[in-house]
Amino acid sequence: METIINYLENIFAGVPDTPEIRRIKNEMLANMEERYTELKKSGKSENEAVGNVIADFGNVDELLSEMGIARNQSEPIDEDNRPVVTFAEINSYKALSKKASKGLGIGVGFILFGVAALIALSTIIEVYHYSEKADNISAIVFFMFLVCGIGILIYHVIMMRPYEYLEKGGLKLAHEACEILERESREEYTKFAKGIAAGVMLCVGGIIVLIIFSMIGDYVHNNELWSSFGVSIMMILIAIAVYIFINIGYQREVYHVLLRIGNSKEVATSSNRMVQVVTAIIWPLTFVAFLIWGFMYDGWHISWILFPIVGILLSGFSSAVKAYHKK
Amino acid sequence: MISSDVLRGYNDTIILSLLLDEDSYGYQISKSIREATNEQYVMKETTLYSAINRLEKNGYITSYAGDISMGKPRTYFRITDDGRKYYQAKCAEWRLTKDMLSVFIREEM
Q1: Which residue of B has its CA nearest to A23?
Q2: How many domains does one find in chain B?
Q3: Does residue B109 fall inside a structural domain?
Q4: How far does the CA of residue B31 sit from the closest CA of chain A (Å)?
C-alpha cells in the first residue's frame, strides 16, 4: 500500500496543488485502495495487487490536459529521457523467462540423459557381446537425445530474443517497479536457496549411487555392467540437478537484468560477453573431440567424461573472469 | 482487450449509462465496467476522472458526499436531466455511427 501512495505522490509532484486536484487525487487514492484490498482478498500477493493497481492507473497527462492544467514549470523537470520499461513489459518478460528457463533446463537435461543412455547401452552391448554394429545403436540413441536437446535450447534462446534490448541498457525503470522487484527478489531468495540445496543433494546422491554400484560390482560377475549403470544413474540425477540450477539461475538473472536497469548502472556486459563467446567456441570443440575419441579410438565408454570436465573448467573460468572484472 | 482508442468517444456514454439507474462513486463505476464487460475493458483511473471532470463541467452529472469509507466520505455522482438528454443524444449518435460503419464492415473477405 505504501508503494501505491508513493506512486501517486510522485505522479502528482509538479502539478499545482489546487483544491480540484487535491480532491481528484484523494478520490483516486481511495479507489486504488479499495481495488488493492479487493485484490488481496481474492488471494493475490502484495506484489501482484500493487502491480495490478498501478498498471490500471493510466496516464496523468490525459487528466491534466482535460482539466486544462499545465505542469508546474518551476519544478525540476525530469531531464532523463531514457525510455521507461513499463509494468506490462516487465510482466511479460518475467513470464516468458520463466518458460525459457524451464526450456533451457530441459534442453540441457536431454543432452545429459543422452549421455546416460549412451553409457548404459554401450556397456550392455559390450558385456553381452552383441555384434560390433550394435554399438552404433547407442550412438544413434545418444544423437537423438542430443539433437532434441539442442533443438529445445535453440528454440528457447530465440524465444527470448525480443527481450534482448533489456540487457543493452539505456533504459529506466519506474521507482515503484523497482520497489516491487526488489521485494520479489528477496521473497524468491528462500525458494532459490532451497532449490540449490536440493540440486546439490541430488549430485551428492548421484555420487553415492555410483560408489555403491561399483562396490556391488566388485562382488558380482558382471562388474562392468554395474559400474556403468551407476554412472548412468548418477548422470540422470545430475541432469535433474542441472535442470534445477539452470531454472533458478535464469530466473535470478531476470531480477538482475531488471534491477540493473532500475539502479541505472551501466550493464557490465564485457565480461559476460567474453564468457559467452568462449563458451560458444569450447562446447562444439568438446563435442568434436568426443566424436573423434569415440569413433576413431573406440572410446565411447569413456569419452563422455569430456563433458563434465569441460563444464567444470568453464564454470571456473567464468567465475574467474567475473571476479577479475569486479575489481 | 479492446483498444481504448476505439472507445475514447464513448467513455462518457458508458459512465452515464451506469448512473441512469442509481448514483455511484468512482470505484464502483470502474468495477461495474470491468464486470459488465467480463474484464474486456478496464477503464484506467485517469480516463475515468477525465470523463467525470468533463461531465461535471458540462453539467451532465453532479457530485455529493456520501457514506464514509476508510475514514473519508465517498463522492457520489448523480446524473442530471441534461445528462439524460446528452446520453440519449449519444445513443442516437452511436446507432447512426453503427449503421453507417456497418456498410464498410464485411462479414466475409
Answers
A1: B75
A2: 1
A3: no
A4: 9
B42 to chain A: which residues are within 8 Å by CB? 56
pLDDT at A74: 46
Residue written as grid cell 546439490: A200
**Across all residues in chain A, what is the average pLDDT?**
80
Provide φ and ψ at A263, rounded to 5°. Answer: -85, 5
H runs (alpha helix) in chain A? 2-12, 19-41, 46-55, 60-67, 87-127, 135-159, 175-219, 223-262, 269-297, 300-303, 306-326
Provide the shortest C-alpha distance from residue A166 to chain B (in Å): 25
Q: Can you give the CATH number for the domain in which B32 is found?
A: 1.10.10.10
**Dihedral (CA of A222, A224, A227, A233) sign:** negative
Cβ of B49 within 8 Å of Cβ of A30? The answer is no
In sign, the C-alpha dihedral spanning B80, B85, B86, B87 is positive
User: Is the pLDDT reported for residue A266 higher than 50?
Assistant: no
| Cβ-Cβ contacts under 8 Å, B72 against chain A | 26, 30
Q: Identify whether B27 is part of a domain.
A: yes
Q: Supply the ipTM of this predicted assembly.
A: 0.86
Cβ distance of B53 and A33 shorter than 8 Å: no
> CB–CB of B45 and A58 under 8 A?
yes
Counted residue by residue, chain B has a size of 109
Neighbours of A59 (CB within 10 A): 14
Q: Report whether pLDDT(A267) > 60.
A: no
The angle at the Cα of B38, spanning B34 to B40, to the nearest 5 degrees, equals 75
